[in-house]
Amino acid sequence: MSTTENLKGRKVILHDMCLRDGMHAKREQISVEQMVKVATALDDAGVPYLQVTHGAGLGGNSLQHGFALAPNEEYISAVASRMKQAKVSVLLIPGLGTMKELQAAYDAGARSVHVATHCTEADTSPQHIAYARKLGMDTTGFLMMAHLNDAAGIAAQGKLMESYGAQTVYVTDSAGYMLPEDVRARVAALRAVLKPETEIGFHGHHNLGMGIANSIAAIEAGATRIDGSVAGLGAGAGNTPLEVFAAVCERMGIDTGVDLFKLMDVAEDVIVPMMDHLVRVDRESLTLGFAGVYSTFLLHAKRAADRFGVPARDILVELGRKKMIGGQEDMIQDTAMTLAKERGLSIREAAAA
Amino acid sequence: MKKIRCALIGSGNIGTDLIYKIRRSPVLEPVWMVGIDLQSEGLARAREMGLKTTAEGVDGLLPHVRGDNIQIAFDATSAYVHAENSRKLNELGVMMIDLTPAAIGPLCVPPVNLREHADRVEMNVNMISCAGQATIPIVHAVSRVQAVEYAEIVASLASKSIGPGTRANLDEFTYTTSNAITRVGGAKRGKALAIINPAEPPMIMRNTIYCLTEDEPDHARITDSILAMIAEVQKYVPGYRLVNGPIYDGNKVSVFMEVAGLGDYLPKYAGNLDIMTAAATRTAEMFAEEILAGKIQLKAEEIA
């Protein structure tokens, strides 16, 4: 099989995550001015979709997920008002974000939404998907932690989201755990059951260094939308680095419509200088990918490790063993405290025996 | 000892679990189970357990209310039909305990405000949500010591314990619980988050409560207040357990709880459903005790 030949001329829509998933890597501390700077540069480079919200999406400002420097609506309107061609998208996780917040995001200028559920819980999204469609938004059903459901299960869940009105269904490798064959099987299973006009997307994390390879595998199996972030600014070891992916696409003859050199300049001149830590595969982010743990847990686990004296890797492995999923960030501190007690470490101020 | 006779409306998981809880009560007796499907498992089980049943909804119960001396009814149907059920039964002098999100009556969390509702002889009280019952006692335990500027609760629920109604209406759950955190919990602002986890074997319900106090928190007094409150809740929910905390970071107080059910009808992991039925039963018991002691009397309501 000559993959390169097969993909020549295929059109793929890129969706940048720097200003949403990247918020996790910045502890939600990207300013409105920085967002505008990044977004206008990406718009100029021809990236068609940019996601802009708190890392946990609409409703994300919380003690559980941290408080950003500005409300979501402020970020969205500041960016959306300056876009020449790019559409602004948002993330909405039912149980955290609500339809009221989706309406507010739309009013601020968002025109696309990832409605995200855990990969087995698609039936918590019908109201939100229907509401997004009613607003006329480009509407995606986003199946997170997709490694925790098999190909047939993902297909069934995607079919549900399509029935609620989703125009695109994503396989979301939130833990950066999947290998190309895992991605291919799930995307192919979706392609087999979804209507021809329903698109399929893939959202990768680079925890095992597989972001690019997995995204290519997704395209081979029928995906037409790929999430990534310039310079990989995202949770864990980051998302699929978008400029690298764009270069690979160009080599393979896949049509992304972006200006590769401009994208490379944004990565080097704008994003890398913004980073608090170099987003890369390090010991802890590799643990996420290896153990299948939600990428956003990384910095929370490091903080809990500092506070309670239990190594972050031990906390992450335990969270994986207990099958904790996205949104359960409270269980990181809880798990760290329980491990500390088991190891006879003293916990300041704790009252539980 | 004389018991107050009760009707259960809704023959699903909650209604069925309520039979077990009420049968165990020294002051309550389950007499009627109301459903809408003659073939439902819930009605069949109720008949097996000796209850009278009807599959004709509340209208099938009304002719028997006087003759069977029904004084308290539990509604575990849906917000859409609760108002009608309540109106019809209140007219006959039956007090309603509302386990739907309808919330047409005052919100009730037993250790926080049940006494007030009983004193006012409220004819309809609402039980909020499972997450509300599991977390608002803790918010109140902090706010009764010092002002809470903001409270946030995170409920993690086993996927198998969440029915289709809640799934399709997650926003309702979020709004109802957030509202009760302020109105009953006493925080100035509130936020509720829900996560549905599909792990096998199913995880036991977990709840994390964060409170931001206005001034520096008094660690000793807040911890004492929380521990006392947990003991209060344990009187009717034995599986309500502190896992970690309270722990203090600046003005933030964090408490990590677990709720195991009794495993009556629903498995033990479904502490979320259990805490609703247990709180509803506790609420009914308080009214029943007062009625039996002759302190309050339920009155048929005039038709407005």
Provide a descriptive summary of the structure in words.
The complex is a heterodimer of chains A (353) and B (304). Chain A is of the alpha/beta class. In chain A, 45% of the residues lie in helices and 12% in strands. Chain A has 15 helices and 8 strands. In chain A, strands 1-2-3-4-5-6-7-8 form an 8-stranded parallel beta barrel, surrounded by 6 helices. In chain A, helix 3 (32-44) packs parallel to helix 4, helix 8 (180-193) packs parallel to helix 9 (211-220) and helix 12 (283-291) packs parallel to helix 14. Chain B has 10 helices and 11 strands. In chain B, helix 5 (110-119) runs parallel beside helix 10 and helix 6 (130-143) packs across helix 10. Classes of the chains: A alpha/beta (353), B alpha/beta (304). Chain B: The active site is at residue 130.
Spatial extent as radius of gyration of chain B:
19 Å
Q: What is the number of helical segments of chain B per DSSP (H or I, 4+ residues)?
A: 10
CATH superfamily of the largest domain in chain B: Dihydrodipicolinate Reductase, domain 2
Ends apart, CA distance between termini of chain B: 37 Å
- The main sheet of chain A orders its strands as 1-2-3-4-5-6-7-8
Strand composition percent of chain A: 5-15%
- Whole-number radius of gyration of chain A? 19 Å
Which descriptors apply to this entry?
heterodimer; A: 353 residues; alpha/beta; TIM Barrel; Helicase, Ruva Protein, domain 3; 2 domains; 8-stranded parallel barrel; 15 helices; 8 strands; globular; B: 304 residues; Rossmann fold; Dihydrodipicolinate Reductase, domain 2; 6-stranded parallel sheet; 5-stranded mixed sheet; 25% strand; EC 1.2.1.10 (chain B); NAD(P)-bd_dom_sf (chain B); Semialdehyde_DH_NAD-bd (chain B); Acetylaldehyde_DH_C (chain B)
What's the layout of helices and strands?
The complex is a heterodimer of chains A (353) and B (304).
Chain A: H1 3-7, E1 13-16, H2 21-25, H3 32-44, E2 49-51, H4 72-80, E3 87-92, H5 99-108, E4 112-118, H6 126-134, E5 138-144, H7 151-164, E6 168-172, H8 180-193, E7 199-203, H9 211-220, E8 225-228, H10 242-252, H11 260-274, H12 283-291, H13 297-308, H14 312-321, H15 330-342
Parallel strand pairs in A: 1-2, 1-8, 2-3, 3-4, 4-5, 5-6, 6-7, 7-8
Chain B: E1 4-9, H1 13-23, E2 28-34, H2 41-48, E3 52-54, H3 57-61, E4 70-75, H4 79-91, E5 95-98, H5 110-119, E6 124-126, H6 130-143, E7 148-158, H7 164-168, H8 170-183, E8 189-197, E9 205-213, H9 219-234, E10 240-249, E11 252-259, H10 271-292
Parallel strand pairs in B: 1-2, 1-4, 2-3, 4-5, 5-6, 7-8
Antiparallel strand pairs in B: 7-9, 9-11, 10-11
Helix pairs in contact in B: 1-2, 1-10, 5-10, 6-8, 6-9, 6-10
EC number (chain A): 4.1.3.39
Binding site for Mn(2+) (chain A): 21, 203, 205
Keywords (chain A): Aromatic hydrocarbons catabolism, Lyase, Manganese, Metal-binding
